[in-house]
Structure formats: C-alpha cells, structure tokens
C-alpha cells in the first residue's frame, strides 16, 4: 500500500551525515542496487544510526542544546516527527527488499518447474476437476500480474510527483548549510546550526522516501514477472490437457460433498 507516503514535516538530527554544500542528501542505498544483500546491510546500518539519533533527540527534549533560542515548539515537534519517520522509512525499504526477493525466488522456482515438466503422468482425457484447478491457477496468476502492474504504475506516478518536493528540500538544505557557515562565531550560530540540521533531516527523509518509491516500483515489477511465469506455466499445462474432460463418479462425489 501507500502508507509509506506520510508527508514529512521538517527537521534534522545532530550527528546525521549532512549533505555537503552544493550536494544532495543521498539515500542509504541506491534503489537500483542489484545486490539486495548489500543493500539490506546498508539500510540496516542506516536504520540503527537513525534509531540511535532519535533516542538522543527524545532524551534531550527541552534542553538548550535541543532547542536553542528562537526555536519554536512547532519546529521542535516537526523535527521529532521527521526523526521518527526516518526510522520507519528504513523499515519500509527493508520490507520492499523482502517482497522483491520473495518474488524473484518464486519466479526462479516456477521457471525451473516449467523447464523440468514433461507432461502429465497419465494420458488424457483428464478430470474436469483438474481443468478447473488449472483454470483457477491461471486466473489467479493473471490477477496477480494485473495487481502488480497497478502497484508499479502507482509507485512510478507518485515518484514523478515527488521529484519537485525532493529538489526543493535539497536546495533548502544547501542554503541552510551556507547560512550556518556564514553565522559561525556569531550569536546566531546555535540557531543557524539547528536550522541547518533541521533542513538536512527534511532532505534526508525526502531522499529516502524517493528511494523507497523506486524500490517499491522495482519490487512490483519483480512480482509481476513472478506471476507471469506462473501464468505461462498454467497455460502450458492447460494446452497439454487438450479439450476433452471426464467426470468420474469419484469427482462427482467430491463436487457434491463441496456443495453440502
């Protein structure tokens, strides 16, 4: 689903890697990374860092370090919300990787079964119940293909709409970093440093959201491919069955029992 799209509010945590002046906040892992094992390691590490920094923020609530002069209650609350959201984004990225890995594994298993299949153990005509079971298998696979295609298109559409927001937050983070550098050694420095971190967290959350959208689209494509493999195998078996079906007394008994 799209619960992953809760809109971020704003704020960054001291200790989070900040984007360099003139650069964008990078996600923990490139969404197109081919090695899901390495991607998972990177996300788990980023999640652990985010959780540690969230704990530090929660422990420092109300202290001068946490809220320097000029910081509103609303800004502090938004920053805490973003810190919590970031840890959730990393978990959703891990879930997206799991979905994609499961789909790839299912696709490989289906393709291997299709390659190894040498036809039915018994010659036709086959049971009408076998026909029905295979038709159900085919219908289910076709539904899964369609559902995955809808999910992929949704992720891609939202990602396209999200691009402008990401660019804005990255630009804001760069400007806030420049302002903090300019204020160094002045009475405004604590406030400017806080605003720099605030803007950097917003940019990081937006960057990880964009990465999640891309990962979601990719996992949907992998689920569609797995379902397409199951669909093709079901079609092959149906074609091998021919057009004749028989209804044995045993099959009739099963049908009647199911109706009771």
Architecture overview:
This protein has 260 residues and is mostly helical. Strands 1-2 form a two-stranded parallel ribbon. The longest helix is centred in the middle third of the chain and has 55 residues.
Unreliable segments of 5+ consecutive residues? 1-24
Fraction of residues in β-strands: under 5%
**Major pleated sheet:** 2 strands, parallel
SSE ordering: HHEHHEH
CA-CA gap between termini? 38 Å
Secondary-structure-based class equals mainly alpha
Overall mean pLDDT: 86
Helical residues, percent? over 70%
Oligomer: single chain
Entry summary:
Helix content is 72%, strand content 2%. It is built from five helices and two strands.
Show the helix and strand layout.
Layout: H1 36-59, H2 73-116, E1 126-127, H3 128-182, H4 189-241, E2 245-246, H5 249-259
Parallel strand pairs: 1-2
Helix pairs in contact: 1-2, 2-4, 3-4
Structural descriptors:
260 residues, two-stranded parallel ribbon, 2 strands, mainly alpha, single chain, disordered N terminus
């Amino acid at each position: 689903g799209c619960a992953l799209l809760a809109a971020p509010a704003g704020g960054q945590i001291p200790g989070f890697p900040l984007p360099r002046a003139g650069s964008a906040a990078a996600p923990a892992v490139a969404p197109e990374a081919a090695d899901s094992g390495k991607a998972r390691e990177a996300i788990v590490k980023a999640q652990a860092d985010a959780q540690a920094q969230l704990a530090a923020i929660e422990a420092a609530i109300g202290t001068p370090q946490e809220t320097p002069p000029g910081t509103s209650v609303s800004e502090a609350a938004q920053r805490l919300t973003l810190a919590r959201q970031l840890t959730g984004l990393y978990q959703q990225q891990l879930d997206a990787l799991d979905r994609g890995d499961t789909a790839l594994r299912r696709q490989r298993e289906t393709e291997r079964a299709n390659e190894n299949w040498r036809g039915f153990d018994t010659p036709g005509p086959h049971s009408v119940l076998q026909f029905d079971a295979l038709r159900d298998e085919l219908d289910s696979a076709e539904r899964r293909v369609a559902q995955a295609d809808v999910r992929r298109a949704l992720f891609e559409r939202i990602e396209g709409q999200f691009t402008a927001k990401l660019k804005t937050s990255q630009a804001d983070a760069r400007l806030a970093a420049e302002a903090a550098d300019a204020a160094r050694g002045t009475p405004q420095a604590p406030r400017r440093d806080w605003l720099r971190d605030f803007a950097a967290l917003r940019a990081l959350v937006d960057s990880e959201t964009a990465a999640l959208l891309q990962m979601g689209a990719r996992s949907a494509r992998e689920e569609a491919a797995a379902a397409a493999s199951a669909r093709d195998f079901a079609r092959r078996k149906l074609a091998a069955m021919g057009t004749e079906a028989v209804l044995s007394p045993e099959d009739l008994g099963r049908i009647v029992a199911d109706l009771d």
